[in-house]
Amino acid sequence: MIIRNVHVENDEAIGDVRIDDGVFAQIGGSADSVGIRAAGTDRAGVNGGRAAADHRDGTSAQVSRPGETVIDGQGGVLLPPFVDPHVHLDAALTAGDPEWNETGTLFDGIRIWSERKKSLSVADVKDRARRTIDMMVRHGIQHIRSHVDVTDPGLVALHALLELKSEVEQYADLQLVAFPQEGILSYPNGKALMQRAVSEGADVIGGIPHFEFTRDYGVESLKFLVDLAVKNDRLVDVHCDEIDDPASRNLEVLATLALENGIGDRVTASHTTAMGSYNDAYTYKLFRLLKMSGISFVSNPLVNMHLGGRFDTYPKRRGLTRVKELDADGINVAFGEDDIRDPWSPLGAGNMLDVVRMGVYAAQLMGYSQIMDSYKYVTYNGAKALHIDDHYGIEVGKPANCIILNASNFYEALNENDEVLYSIRAGKVIVSTRPHVTTLR
Ligand code: FE2
Fold it and tell me: Where are the beta strands (DSSP E) in 162-230?
């Protein structure tokens, strides 16, 4: 396959991309742009842009071979597929059932979900999750990490999503987190349910220490779940300090456990919204540990902005972790959508452009180069959190997974919410979109 007429990762020049046997064979070069790729046009600060540049020659035209599939990229921007590193597929599309979350608090969301959970069936979860994944794939997502509530003696949602995982693998890969929504120590048989979830196939171990009854329970839950991950060779992704309480300091415990076990690259702290309320002196000290630990962060700007600050009158906090500061310190931060029309968010379309747009506003990352580079939060940084970065990215020899957006660069795509013209996975087109046409009269 040859893809013609694309701006590879915001490159100003138009180029072509060749795919052989499902992997990238050549990146750059075209009849229209031979030799005009200027040095240093890759976006500074985007990990993959720099890495990929080493493998683009930019000097020779690519000629299609007889019988070869030729895709016209129409001058669009070619990026690696979007990654959603944090979503709850088991709860998706349940908003309003059995009731709407009218207070907009995390805790009312948990209460309403606890009611809805009683009527879950494998068919119900699979149906809603499949429709949600379809939405996500149409918007260019190919890699998904879904938390799955395992505070359920029947583990119904986990069984449903394990089935679905293999059914959708041709167009999306799914990591499933054993997520104890109602706590590990604070829910009957919580530890045993986590162990069962792992033995039945969960890829990642989750937690929710700030929701446990006591701080001691929170700490014990973290020790338990990290131990479970180490013993079973699993990744870790904890809902950590998702509360506007400056005294919620489970993050320092998680980072210390990651450091001492040498598993920082396999550990993610999700939300960490309490960090938005920590004082600067404590945060300064904390950042040293965070950097040493090597853990990743996932911020969920849409849902954090919606649920955060709900107990404040004024001044009202943003309820977001310190995205800009983590990023500036070289700590990996990705963005997730978190909730798609469920008890925690009544809105959601499975579109990472919505997530990035809110993220750059809320984290005040609105410089032009920051906006241009902001795709990293839903591509490379997400891939690193998912621990799939060794086979992810626009680079010769890597699996030919990519998307082409109907815009010449990411700034334009973000402004216009442009279509995914193509999503290509292992060298095969899995999504194609005909751009809409509007006529002004
Ligand atoms: Fe979440």
Answer: 173-179, 204-205
**Angle, helix 215-232 to helix 250-261, in steps of 10 degrees:** 30
Beta strands in 48-191 (DSSP E): 70-79, 82-87, 141-149, 173-179
- Would residue 22 be called left, alpha or beta, if left means φ above 0 and alpha means ψ between -120 and 50 degrees? left
pLDDT at position 61, please? 59
Phi, psi for 265 (deg, rounded to 5): -70, -5
pLDDT at 270 over 50: yes
- Read off the pLDDT of each residue in 328-343 and give the average, rounded to a whole number: 98
What pLDDT sits at residue 29?
A: 76
Quote the CA–CA distance of 279 and 400 in Å, as a whole number. Answer: 45
314 plus 377 within the same structural domain:
yes
As residues whose CB is below 5 A from the ion ligand 1, the structure lists 338
What's the gap in Å between 147 CA and the centre of ligand 1? 7
Is the pLDDT confidence value at 122 over 90?
Answer: yes
Residues 423 and 316 in one domain: no
- Centre of ligand 1 from the C-alpha of residue 437, in Å: 37
* Ramachandran sector of residue 259 (left: φ over 0; alpha: ψ -120 to 50; beta: rest): alpha
CA 340 to ligand 1 center in whole angstroms: 11
Q: CATH number of the domain that 428 lies in? A: 2.30.40.10
What tokens appear for 116 in the block?
A: 């809805």
- Which residues are identified as catalytic? 242
User: How far apart are the C-alpha atoms of 50 and 45, rounded to whole Å?
Assistant: 8
Please check whether residues 321 and 172 belong to one and the same domain: yes
Q: Which of the four pLDDT bands, split at 50, 70 and 90, describes residue 30?
A: low
Q: How far apart are CA 411 and CA 59, in angstroms?
A: 27
Q: How far is the CA of 87 from the centre of ligand 1 (A)?
A: 6
pTM over 0.90: yes
Mean predicted confidence (pLDDT) in 281-306: 98
46 CA to middle of ligand 1, Å? Answer: 26
Q: How far is the CA of 88 from the centre of ligand 1 (A)?
A: 6
